[in-house]
């Protein structure tokens, strides 16, 4: 960061809204705690965020939009008032007209992501690098009010004595507060309301923030102290840190004025463009970002507008030998982020100027001692065209002038001068003691840092164990589910084994007593369909399987339509035995046309066992032969009917032609 203020040596909270809305009931926030090295992340509610801020007391709460923490200005003021004394709210994207967080992060080399946790981390890192505007709603004036802690309408004594005692307590407490403010050398004004026996109240307007006032708010006995910071008319913004190190500035004038600020090492600090800003506004913008020692343009000669900026800063001028071509400007700014061509031209001019002076900057830095302000030396050498040696001599002469003026005569010191000398020696001793204490603090900080690292490692280990416990619980739940599934499958298996044993018993696959039924080996299985419907056909197929060549028994053959008959025909049965009513004409036609034999069940002797049945092969063959005879007769009748119909149609057609 060159000579600029480095990252804050304290805790920074980056905050971005995770879900919900601050105007709603339950917003949640992504919070990143960053201390310059370590990063902790969490998602918390608004209430938990407030408790976290009160407990940790971070130096900065960083956000890309302050109205993610408050619904309106009044709530924002309330939020700022609730913050600890040493905590400030920082909007890293700017003041009244903030920029996109992605652009600010890219400009300052901070990693950015669109997820809330990534945005919160980017805000924290930007604020730690002193990027952003401090949000303030209060001035440096604080009101301290001392008043009655009890009502004067009640008391154990008489009314007058009770009132006099309370007013006397307010007076004594007011004088204590006044003495403490005086001892702290604080400027204040007081407004006292006198009443019977003392003061009704005393109001002190102190020119200091609350944390510098040696008085605490609260109630004690008959008195109460209230401390409230004076509210400003609106919300104000102050930059976290101003860059006052030497910089190189590029200016692109025109209808749109653009400016770019670059460090002496070529680091890009900021770019700017506006169609409405005047010269004063641009100069103010540049002053906030550093001390210009070189003002550059991308064309030659230098335009008059750019020359005005140069004279304003008494800076050196730089112009190229010829106007910079567009391709060179594009190449030089290829790694930079800018919004328009004007910013690109200003940035290219600044970068080329920094490149041109790079060797000179390096020589000045090498010749300048470490205890001398290098920025001042570089500015005077480059802008004032002085030599390094002359600038160093001049600075050295300024430091020794006072000593030379006091060596001309030796005289006796006055009492006041001796006291000053004694106090200076005392200051030296105290400063030495302070240095010793600072060393002790550094050692303790190192110890604390070591403990924090151990704590962080312990937290990581605890989180790892928690993940393992969650995984074990998940696997246990999965194991229990699989065990229940195994029990279900075992139960289904037992049911199927029982059914298999019944089937073996019926078809003599496992039992010898089947010979009592099938004494001559002349039995065939019969598969029963309770009703001639599609659902019944499908159910029988799923339970027992309907295969080609099966004998099918329709216990109720009535009511079937064409689709049901076709579904049965698709199984290719050997014969269909029916009872419980006649087939419908449609079903009878479908079965006949597909040559599926149909016979009454009375023609076949069927033996039923549970849900299964058997019939004699001889009866089945006889039924099929009977159907074939009936089918042949039916075909002859149908053929004769067709011939009669054709003859009738022919005769009718002939008579029609004769009549014409």
Automatic annotation (TrEMBL):
Membrane-spanning intervals of the chain: none
Residues of the region (Disordered) are 393-415, 635-660
**Where does the source fall among the domains of life?**
Archaea
Q: Record's Pfam families?
A: DUF460 (PF04312)
Annotated InterPro entries: DUF460, P-loop_NTPase
Biased composition of type Acidic residues is found at 395-407
Q: Output this protein's name.
A: DUF460 domain protein
Extent of Basic and acidic residues compositional bias:
635-653
